[in-house]
Amino acid sequence: MPNPDPAPIAGPMLHHHGTTPIGSNVIGGSHIPAAALSYPMHNTPMFSPSNAPGAHVSSTPTMSHGGYSWKATTNHSSRMLCHRGVVAGTDTGSDVYVGRSMYKGDVLPAKVIPNKNAAYICYDGAEIPVTNFEMLVRSECTWVQSRNGTVPAGAFPIGQTTSGEILYAARVHVRGGISIGKVHPSHGCCYVPYNGREESHKVYEVLVLDT
């Protein structure tokens, strides 16, 4: 029989229906297995139709290989994404981040330098400053309590049965420790390995990616 409601997982690990990322729980240093993600990195962004230099990027962030996504920002707000941004190197002592922007209908790589409130693309032999662009960022995650085989929006798909049913990553409190397992929706519970056997739990926390 599935276990009754367990004691809450103590400390900052538990976030009931929250969306605050848990920095220490970024999976594998933010590298999420590509097999579990829905969209390739070469997804077609939904940019503004304007072809002006640095035209506003109005794409909806989409998941991509390795748990990365594109976030719309500007040269005055890009610093807010530095903690998740991908650093390509340095230029005169400032970190340079990977970005992209639209120019004359092309989607082009951008050199983003948040410390200087600047970003640049190159086109037709010239370096061109842009003010609106996207930065490549790592996804973060949080744990959201759920029960009875249900999962919240954004739940991380971690596997699949032979019948095609999707399984989701989850964790439960088991006799003083934490065990990671699978939410099996059609079974109405979460299964975790513990002490040589499979245990079922009605209440659990589901891994949710914040993109």
UniProtKB/TrEMBL annotation:
SMART domains: DM9. InterPro entries: DM9_repeat. It holds the Pfam family DM9. Residues 1-24 are annotated as: Disordered. It comes from the Eukaryota. This is Protein of function.
